[in-house]
Task: structure prediction
Amino acid sequence: MRFIFLTILSAIVVVFLNPVVPFWVVMISIATLSAIIYPNGIGGFLGGGLGMGLTWLGQCIYLGITTGSSLPDRMGDLMGLGSGMTLIFITGIIGFILGAFSGWTGVLFRKMVQKTPQNVYKG
Amino acid sequence: MKYFAFLLMLAICVSLAVLVSKPIGQIPPIAPLLDPNHGFWQNTLSEDQLATEEIDLDNLSAPVEVVYDKNLIPHIFAENELDLYRAQGYVTAQHRLWQMEFQTMAAAGRIAEIVGPVALELDRMTRRKGLAYGAEAGLKFVQENDPETFKLVEAYADGVNQYISQLSDARLPVEYKILNYRPEPWSAYKSLLLLKYMSDMLVGDRDLEFTNLRNIIGEAGLAKLFPEFPTENDPVIEAEKIWDFTPIPVSKPDSVNYPDDPQGLKPLTQPIEGTGSNNWAVAGKKTKNGNPILANDPHLSLNLPSLWYAMQLSTPTHSVKGATLPGALGVISGFNQDIAWGVTNATKDARDWYKITFQDESRKAYQYGNEWKPTEIRVEEIKIKGQEAFLDTVIYTHHGPVVYDRTFREDRVDVNYALKWTVHMGSNEQKTFILLNKAENFADYNTALDNYTSPAQNFVFASQSGDIGMRIQGKFPLKWREQGKFFMDGADPRMEWQGYIPNEHNPATLNPERGFVSSANQHPVDPSYPYYVFDNSYEHYRNRRLNRRLRELNQITVEDMKALQFDDYNLQAAEAVPAMMNLLGDYKTASPEVEKYLKELGSWDFYADPNQKAQTLYSIWSAEVFESIWREFTDQTVSIVRPNSYQTIELLVKNPNDLVFDLKSTESVEHADYHVKAGFDSMLVALQKWEETEGDYSWANYKKTTIQHLVPNFKSFSVANIYTGGGAGILNATGSRHGASWRMVVELGPEIQAFGVYPGGQSGNPGSKFYSNFIPIWANGEYLNFNLRTAEDQDEILFKTTFN
Result:
């Protein structure tokens, strides 16, 4: 549940915040979200990763379709990667990796600062 | 443990973020490039998808309206010139920022800053030629002599800078993203630098090669193989023109000692062959509608983003439209409501070289007459991407910068040559275009041209009132015969230029009897012109074809003029092929392959159309024949030039048994037929190889016209293998990398009818649909409607923007 929540919120951050801030601010934001939502480690990793990766992937596909531009293919060719499809895929992967490690870092941060409940019944 | 886990993960995360935001070698930072919100994906959007109705532009006195037609051609309507040029700067930067900056970086010798050490040698050469120095002198000249123009150039720069300051990462041109740098502020200096860049592109000299030739073949050899006027001279200004002025006398020194030690120098890069242009105007008496028609097509390197950017610029007093140069103010080749004008390069040995004798190793003084004159030292700091800056010390003399010295292209300490070039002298070309844009008649056009120095141009003119004219304008030194053809002694004051030809003595004509004016980079004048005229690169074919057609044609229409710009007739082939076939005789006719080629050549109408096979045959055959004829001649340890194609063909046709055809290395005596046959053999080999590897050898397939991105490595941003005809020496001068970079035809009737096209598109963004959309139109010889628009005109509007 928390993982899905993190995925959705990360995606929202990318959609609304990313246009005005660079990718590393998005990474910090996802880490923060992850620390607040506090899924487990895998949930943080996948939630942040899918949130950012899928959104980047979706944004590329959306731009590719709505503009009909030849630029992705030209860039793919220039970078020696063949077609623009490869670049869409790579963009998604990069987004996933950046989001995933941010999400995981957020979880671990929360774990670190979280006080382990001790002697809750005392007194 | 949990501290450790967090810190480890944080370290991984930060390392990742750093890794993807740093360049690795030549690979740009990957995350900023791929980020769909800021990276190259944003450059997939075309200009109409990004259109905004209003843009804030400071320092305007009134709102400026910009109407884009369906081809993204902006029509700027401003209340005054200051607002107009401010908006021109902004709008041009919106579409061409990377290109305009890159071109000025090239002119300033700053390419290594962007691409690394690979461009260091190029940058050194640019700096040593003194382009930046010339632009500085130009800026000072404009500031001191023409504050009005300076204000306008500053307004343009302000427009560009306001765009740069509003520029988000997402809107940054994709080339910046790939090469990982950002635009720096624009300035008036950069606009002037751009005009110097044009000079560098168009002006060359062969002084080094002629110095060497003079030593090798002597004066008589030069006169025979490199005559200063061709047999069939068809000059820019009609040969029958009477020069109605008293020329300024030029005195030649009694004895001239040319320095003969520059043999080892490596020449500077020269304008590439095929760089040239056509322009002409026909008088109303030769046209169907009785209106003058003007045409212009400058031939330059075919590049993307295109060198030209189409615009209409309007104030309440004038409306001008045509091709602008991104970075420079106004329209360069175009028309307004009263007149039209166009430009072609008027080459005329504008660069001379002087041997410098330094007093000692310190190079602080050099000999001049009986004294030692002090030098000036300019240290050029060339920044290099990824390396420490390179410091290049360039010595300046009163002649100009010492380009060749012990550190550059010459190992010997005692060989130093300074370059004298009008580009180094203060001038105000920008004013010419600002005045031409609003000129109303021939007198205004002449006033505008009086400010023009370099690169010298043939300015064609036509007006609605019925005048046609041509003026060859530049700052031309007064020279005695052969002065500046060879390297000169800089210590000898008698070698100085003796002043400049006054503007009113520059060759010009108004409404000549023949009913047309034209230029195609040929000799400017007939030998009767009283001043010395020399250049090695004059055209001998396009001019004669053009004038022949213009003489023949009557009842001329705009369509005729469009057809003439796209005329593929190869006059050189028409003159050479019959003689070559004759000299070939029945050589190898037994082979079926040969029979096929000969049949193709024999039935050829000499049009270099894209599907023509004979044009390919001629192109290879003639090149191989010329190579065979001049191989021994050019086999020298020093740089020389070989006689041009016109002279070679003339010898081949008229004197096939001339001694120049004999190979000294053989015992037998060779005549022209030997070379024609040898060239034919080479052609057979080349064709066989071509057919095996590439297949079809029809002309378009063979020449592979390519419009290349300004960064040649960005191959996928180029457009290759365009199906179109023409070639060097042909009116449609489209070769493989050069050709008509802009075509314009204007009929100056009561309602001006104008057509234009260029091989590119209005957008500089390779992701935009407006990046290369004109290319198919251009390749087919078709045109876009370029009629003037009013602000109220609602037809075919893409979008409108108001600057407040």
